Amino acid sequence: MPKRSEEMLVDLLMSLLLVWITCIPSISMTPIGGQSRTAQTGGSAAASGLGEGQRLLNRAKRGWVWNQMFVLEEFSGRDPILVGRLHTDLDVGNKNIKYVLAGEGAGTIFAINELTGDIHAMKRLDREEKAEYTLTAQVINADTDEPLEPPSEFIIKVQDINDNPPQFIEGPYRASVPEMSAVGTPVTRVTATDADDPVYGNSAKLVYSILDGQPYFSVDPNSATIKIALHGMDREMREEYQVVIQAKDMGGHMGGLSGTTTVTVTLTDINDNPPKFNKSLYEFGIPEDLPIGKTGGKVKADDRDIGENARSTYSIIEGDDLGAFEIVTDAQTQEGILRLRKPLDYESKKAFTLRVEATNVRSEPSSGVPFKDTATVKIVVEDADEPPVFSKPMYLLEVKENAPINTVIGAVTARDPDSYGSVVRYFIDRHTDLERQFNINVDDGKITLAKPLDRETDMWHNITVTATEVRNHSQISRAIVAIRVMDINDNAPEFATEYEAFLCENGKPGQVIQTVSAVDKDDPIQGHYFDYRLVPEMLNNPNFTIKNNQDNSISVLAKHDTFRRQKQEMYFLPIIVTDNGNPPMSSTNTLTIRVCGCSRDGIVQSCNVEAYVLPIGLSMGALIAILACIILLLVIVVLFVTLRRHKNEPLIIKDDEDVRENIIRYDDEGGGEEDTEAFDIATLQNPDGINGYLPRKDIKPDLQFMPRAGQHSGPNGVDVDEFINVRLHEADNDPTAPPYDSIQIYGYEGRGSIAGSLSSLETASSDSDQNYDYLREWGPRFRRLGELYSVGESDRET
Fold this sequence. Notes:
12% of the residues lie in helices and 32% in strands. The chain is mainly β. Among the domains are: 68-159, Sandwich (Immunoglobulin-like); 167-268, Immunoglobulin-like (Sandwich), CATH 2.60.40.60; 276-382, Sandwich (Immunoglobulin-like), CATH 2.60.40.60; 389-486, Sandwich (Immunoglobulin-like); 494-600, Cadherins (Immunoglobulin-like, Sandwich), CATH 2.60.40.60. Strands 34, 36, 39, 40 and 41 form a 5-stranded mixed β-sheet that branches. Strand 40 and strand 41 (604-606) form a beta hairpin. Helix 1 packs across helix 3.
């Protein structure tokens, strides 16, 4: 009979156990603390004299040794605590063995006595940080450090004690619940956690209780659910509550640790309060001239609820004249605003009584009947000085355009609506009648014509008439008066445009030359009808005739085909146009007909008679081209003559009165800043260094110098005039000097000159101390300068 699966599994486990027993190290452990049994080990085989079977039995016995050690958190204090003891079969008075420890916390948290095998905890242990440690023990030779037995693995577990209080990780809490909720209604749930071991003992078993918040709330001790404990909690009385919840471990028994948290409970609003008017009677005084749509008063019904539950709408449910007023709700202030819908008249009705109702937008939750309240509103109409009132807001008047001056066009009327009835005066607003075409009688409002009217210029005239109280000129009313100018037949018809017809020489008799229509500025009611005819002198016109097209237009026809430009180039055909007005008006208009040369298709090509007297083969374009060439040749000749004239003019402009006689002009350009050889400025400033000059080969400018009277010589016989002439001669004949335009600078005044320096920079005297009479003695070149300074002195004296 085959074995069952359970028996096969047992056999497999027994085989694995036998293998493990064979390989188990020969180290036994003795835990401290009484948590496991102590296993005793025997000596070595040589010492005990046991046979091989007994040795296997000893190994089998050690294989079932408890391989765990336990240590309580409270044992791990300042001094080392003995956790357990290791022992090997080789340790029979043998001093040549040593115990070693490896694994988690070996050497730091746990230490082993090398000789005895005692294991100690060196530091404080916390199960919440690490609950167990896996270590390995081995016996080695104390001299050679060679292992004597295979390593043995064991576990040290830290046993929990109640050293952690409960904590509310998510606290403090906030919760809300509707007001007036029933007893037992859940509000919220809180949760506390305990770091102690929930499996071992009651260290993590929590019980909840309420410390603060009674009698309004209660808490379930196991689920920590907070519930309503009091009936009729009203938000309008108190809106917020502070509830303190405690969580205690050890199942709530004595000695357990506890933690607390705060729960803020807010009562949310429900619509449990109706709106209420502050007063049962409201009184307002409203002036009778209050504009339509303006506010006449405000009412308000207070609601103890908040938000949507406090929103109310207002309505008028009763009153003397329900159409005179309306009430709307201000969404921001929750007020009822009373507004005017129709004009008020103190003289006809002096007071109104209305019944106003305020209703909640939301219904009361229990009954479904809306909350509402009513109040009475009394409105007293206050008398006001009102402006005059026209009988019509707008007047429409008509007048013929030929009406004589002072014709009465119409009248406007206005009255004072006040009870005392002031007299009214009428005026025309001249901003609307800038040309002053109309007048108005200030007493009765009759409008008369002040200037003639022309419908063809302005068909409508819109003026504004004002009515003013005599008693109070500030009370003014306005009305618009539209005056229509009626048409009369005062304009004769005329051609619609200035027609110019073209007649082909090769045209056929009866050919339409031009279609003519007329216009009339008048606008008769029955419409326009025009009659066309030739002037009496042209009734038997041999060249042209007219035909009525029955649409207020005519066609002009040619009578023959013998028209020639050489004979007559242009014809004038007068036509009389008459309208159908009363009386009829007519005008004579002339149609110009030009005879032209046309193609075979009747397309006009030329209407000029001169084209036929020109030579054959020479067109108008050729003549224009020839004329343009002639004009171009004339322009070239004029330019050439002008350039030759400018070229022959002398280079130097001679003028005896020109004070710029020291400037020499050339037609060539200067050398610029790099030209340093045009003249020697050092030589010009030192006249004694003249050793001669080199003649120049270019053309010398023809310069003339006026003799100057009153010349003075300096020391060594050097004269300024002579110095300048020498320098000028040198510059003119210097072949090394380039032929550039240059300015010769002569800053030398001569040695021993009585004139001295002309500069006032180094003089201590002022202009008033100078006498410039000596400038007149220097010659004609300084005469003008002397006259200028003499005039200045005479001006200061005067």
